[in-house]
């Protein structure tokens, strides 16, 4: 996301001690002669992956009940796990010269009521962006007014950030090429290239054109996933698309995700691009 | 700080994978049969120690100028370093059964103007305490309205928390027995047992009774300390004492710090207790 970095050496921003190296590495001279890279404003939100889901599901943090010893312990354990991952991601970005700053939703005061987001001071995220940073948020254990606590998923955070920040587009990075009509491990799984979202929030597959595609789409959720897996991802993506913001679901670390992140698939989708685009279809425009 | 824990097994709340152990350790059954420990409400604030001071002083984050590449990189590097330490402290407390939650001042939206604290939503800390958690805050790099950024020290954070939360007492844990009249490494250094703070914020040594003690007190600050070292610590402690809250400066991991933390040195100071008490002296009461 940093333009013009081709000619400049990347200067890392993680000056921690590394195992096996006695000295902290910080070449201040590299910064003195450097002009600030022209970086687009962006925000990174990550889920928990193998960090957090075990702790949350084992204790039932997502179901609430903070007065129970197990849930309270699970809340603490979940936060330790997700903030460990957050710190690693901030560190990796900083090493690549991206001025990343971790922002934990719990610390930011984000909370829910009956598992729906109620309170979030999004101006803190805006301030961090305006100061030249890349905020890195994550799915987190948060307080809930009705059930005492719950898990706030990264997907829900993205939707709220998108509604507030109105970005040009949102990219979901995943470990498969995009959304399939059935679990992608199955041999006949078909990659859905374009999903149209309607005014009422319902969605249908536009590309590839298959009869009764909707009915054929099977969605499974892993047993340990406390935040809904692909179902949540698509429904949150559909809600973002309804705001007029295109959503691209792509495989991380591929040319497809790079192109999506650089904004190359806005407008007409290139034929050689693999991924799923989720777009709002304005019926009035569509019918003309 | 947890009472009644003598008869109960400590059940850890850090369920992360440990090096050399393939399985995550979480004995849920231990929690099912456990009643919640009766823990006093408390807050932990830590500084940066060897984490953060190097990064901050090397880049001059405390002096501001976030538009400069080196300062911006230093801000990122400082936050990585202090949040790494914060996570370790949260983890150590959780392993001892203390329901600790990390709360980064930057993420909480704390900010300064001309290096003085202006904005801090302290209600987030109260909410965490009321939910049964022990918030763990730390010295942090924050945004500054006038000079773009600065370092907010743990000592300043404690003062603001004390003014808001009105705790019974505040304990500063350090690596020496308390405040000395000169660097404690010097052979003739005398431990100051009691310091009285006056209405105007000035302070004088009450115990031991030495002539012109004030004049004899030498205070040095390490070159790498961006937040003022012992000078800041005493002046912040004096400001807390002025609120009518006793401050104890004690050596960590000793019987003296344990007694101070348990509130045993409130009122008359035991003769066999070693540490420095900083107390407000109400002149009107003192003169009667």
From TrEMBL, chains A, B:
Keywords: ATP-binding, Isoprene biosynthesis, Kinase, Nucleotide-binding, Transferase
Statement: the UniProt record of this protein carries the keyword Isomerase: no
EC supergroup of this enzyme: transferase
One Pfam family hit: AA_kinase
Residue intervals of the Aspartate/glutamate/uridylate kinase domain: 40-250
GO cellular component: cytosol
Annotated residues for binding of ATP: 49, 175, 229, 233
Domain of life: Eukaryota
Signal peptide from the UniProt entry: none
Family: Belongs to the isopentenyl phosphate kinase family.
Official protein name in the record: Isopentenyl phosphate kinase
Source organism (scientific name): Hevea brasiliensis
């Amino acid at each position: 996301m940093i333009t013009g970095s081709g000619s400049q050496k990347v200067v890392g921003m993680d000056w921690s001690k590394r195992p096996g190296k006695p000295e902290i590495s910080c070449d201040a001279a590299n910064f003195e002669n450097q002009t600030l890279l022209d970086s687009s404003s962006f925000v990174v939100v990550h889920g928990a992956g193998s960090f957090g889901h075990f702790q949350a599901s084992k204790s039932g943090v997502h179901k609430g009940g903070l007065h129970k010893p197990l849930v309270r312990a699970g809340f603490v354990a979940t936060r330790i796990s997700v903030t460990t991952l957050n710190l690693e991601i901030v560190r990796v970005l900083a090493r690549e010269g991206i001025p990343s700053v971790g922002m934990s939703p719990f610390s930011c005061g984000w909370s829910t009521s009956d598992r729906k987001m109620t309170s979030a001071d999004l101006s803190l995220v805006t301030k961090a962006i305006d100061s030249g940073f890349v905020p890195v948020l994550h799915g987190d254990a948060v307080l809930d007014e009705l059930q005492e606590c719950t898990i706030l998923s990264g997907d829900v955070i993205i939707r709220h950030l998108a509604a507030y920040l109105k970005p040009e587009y949102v990219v979901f990075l995943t470990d498969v090429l995009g959304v399939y009509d059935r679990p992608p491990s199955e041999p006949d799984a078909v990659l859905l290239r374009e999903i149209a979202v309607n005014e009422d929030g319902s969605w249908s597959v536009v590309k590839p054109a298959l009869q009764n595609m909707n009915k054929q789409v099977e969605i499974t959720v892993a047993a340990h996933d406390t935040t809904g897996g692909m179902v949540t991802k698509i429904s949150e993506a559909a809600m973002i698309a309804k705001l007029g913001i295109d959503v691209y679901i792509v495989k991380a670390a591929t040319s497809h995700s790079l192109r999506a992140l650089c904004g190359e698939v806005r407008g007409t989708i290139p034929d050689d691009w693999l991924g799923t685009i989720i777009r709002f279809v304005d019926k009035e425009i569509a019918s003309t």
